[in-house]
Amino acid sequence: MDATVVGSGDAFGSGGRFQTCIAVAVDDAPPRVLVDCGATSLTALRKQQLDPNEVDTIVITHLHGDHFGGLPFLILDGQFRRRSRDLTVVGPPGTRDRLTTAMEALYPGSSEVRRRFDVHVLEHADRRPLELGGIRVTPYEVRHASGAPAYAVQLQTSTGSLAYSGDTEWTDVLLQAADDVDLFLCEGYSPAPIRWHLDLQTLEQHRDRFTCRELVLTHLSPTALAADLTTWKVAYDGLRLTV
Description:
Elements: E1 2-7, E2 21-25, E3 33-35, H1 41-47, E4 57-59, H2 65-68, H3 71-80, E5 87-91, H4 95-106, E6 119-123, E7 130-132, E8 135-141, E9 151-156, E10 161-164, H5 173-177, E11 183-187, H6 200-206, E12 215-218, H7 222-225, E13 233-234, E14 239-242
Parallel strand pairs: 3-4, 4-5, 5-6, 10-11, 11-12, 12-13
Antiparallel strand pairs: 1-2, 1-14, 2-3, 7-8, 8-9, 9-10
């Protein structure tokens, strides 16, 4: 399994980074799965020379624009570039309605267009795994207000495993989501505690409790980017990790 951090930034592009998007490839194939698709993700995919039309599945952690707001653009890009393969979107309860609302707000009428491909929307349930093209996706509900449940997600394949925290304040659920995975991409938004987000101080307190093989910080704010990060591995746009 290869994971490319297409976008490692927070909601506001701090440090010039693109919003959250992680591309996952299995068995030397092109990336077929995205974890999150922030509003800047279509541009970020092109910058990393990844073809959005090759993506089969997009797993959404929560319904904030910097994590799912790129979906309308990716769908419309597929329409205008004559995409033919179906796209599956997996997200929290309410994803189907929120996606329709977003498409209509940005491009009125776009949610009703007949395309050469279908968009299938599946909605998560806490701790209920889904099998998607050789990848087992398990959501773990975390603590982040977004108008719908928010999840950390764990992806398992025959060749490797990864987890992503999504956005959340500290909860022991993260230890379960990251249990024994090869790679844990973890929000490190703030140096000090802040509501709804993970912070470096709290992560340090729990660091020895994680059983993942590697932990990499992502989704850092300006203050976190300016902090002493010498003891942490930090993601950047374009970072490729093999697990």
